Amino acid sequence: MKLADAYGCHGLRCESPQEVDATIEKAMSLNDAPVVIDFQVHKDAMVWPMVPAGTSNDMITIARSLAPAWERED
Predict the structure, then answer these.
(1) What is the pTM of this model?
(2) CA–CA gap between residue 62 and residue 74 (Å, rounded)
(3) Which regions of the chain does DSSP assign to beta strands (E)?
(4) Nearest-CA neighbor of 37 among 4, 71, 73, 74?
(5) Distance between CA 28 and CA 20 in Å, rounded?
(6) What tens digit of pLDDT does each residue of 12-61 get?
(7) Dihedral through CA 5, CA 7, CA 12, CA 13, nearest 10?
(8) pLDDT value at position 65?
(9) CA terminus-to-terminus distance, the chain
(10) According to the model, what pLDDT value does residue 11 have?
């Protein structure tokens, strides 16, 4: 939330599934600055796509043990 404020954005936090629709509606109603939404999930939630902690964005996975097939120029 503070990072959003620091960049001049609106910061919204959604802490439960029941708040999702209201949070998105609120975000859609704000048109004077970008909106950053912090969706709180359980620490063990398997949210995809995911970048494992401590790795670069090149290590993204789209499901458990599945990585996208990037076209690479090596």
Answers:
(1) 0.62
(2) 22
(3) 10-14, 35-39
(4) 4
(5) 12
(6) 999 999 999 999 999 999 999 999 999 998 877 777 788 888 988 888 88
(7) -90
(8) 72
(9) 39
(10) 96
Spatial distance between the Cα atoms of 65 and 5, rounded to a whole number of angstroms = 36
Phi-psi region of 8 (alpha: psi -120 to 50; beta: other; left: phi over 0): left
| Cβ contact 34:12 at 8 Å | no
- Which single residue is written with the structure tokens 């063990």? 44
> Is the Cβ–Cβ distance between 1 and 13 less than 8 Å?
yes
Is the N-terminal amide bond of 52 cis, ω within 30° of 0? Answer: no
User: How is residue 66 annotated by DSSP?
Assistant: B
Expressed in percent and rounded to 5, the helix, strand and coil fractions of the chain are 30, 20, 55
Token pair, residue 5, equals 């404020």
